[in-house]
Write the structure tokens for this entry.
Amino acid sequence: MKPASFEMSRPESLEEATRLLADNHDTARLIAGGQSLVPLLNFRLATPGILIDLNRVAGLAGIRREGAALHIKAMTRQQELIDDPLVSALRLYWPKPGVRSAISRPAAAAPSAAALPKPIRPPNFRSPR
Amino acid sequence: MKVRCRVNNEEAVADVEPRLLLSDFIRHELRLTGTNVGCEMGVCGACTVIVDGNPVRSCLMFAVQADGCVVRTVESLAGEGPLNALQVAFQEHHALQCGYCTPGILMTLQALLDRGALPSTETAIREVLSGNICRCTGYQNIVDAVLAIAQ
């Protein structure tokens, strides 16, 4: 097994997830699509004590239009974005994502810093150190 | 940690460490060695399996995350019977040489076939294959095999 040992929790509500995060804030990492975090775990560049898996938390994914803005929730898969009619109408250039990649991916880890078209990078996006 | 899922139409139940990757679970615990592991960082696509209808990199998912899911590996395509249409097309068009990438490519394409989304133009086929790296064929014969299926 490549990653170091960790505990895994798979909360089903936002309340449960945030409570787990608050209780373990010094050792926890959130896992969404895992397309960036899992390689870091495999190389042991990340060695969290507990992984909080967001894949079962209801209500974290979805795309909706509000006036001129698109609201894209953080667990929306990049593939869902590409397939979405509202998004494809914008005619953005897409690098190839992983099917499981969540939209939050570039904010979470370094390897894919430029993997999203600029207009829909998350507001907390920052270049890796 | 308990994982219970359906793999190739059979119930799989195991108690595993959370850090066990789905690829290693499939190969080492279930002994389904048709799924190959290449780069182990999500780039090459060799370990692609179908989870709940979507093609996913099994090296970037933990076994416990497949709890409650339906998983298909390359072994499910033919089972004990003859090769399925996709496999026959690969054979007829010589779409593989060493074969290491082939299970991942087949599962990527099978997921699209299952949802009726297999493209029929060469450009679109190359696009859907872009997540799977092949170091032998130069891709042309793979594209030819998919074109034959799509038409």
Observations:
- Chain A has a mean pLDDT of 80.
- The first helix of chain A runs from residue 14 to 23.
- The two ends of chain A are 28 Å apart (CA to CA).
- Chain A touches chain B through 24 residues (CB under 8 Å).
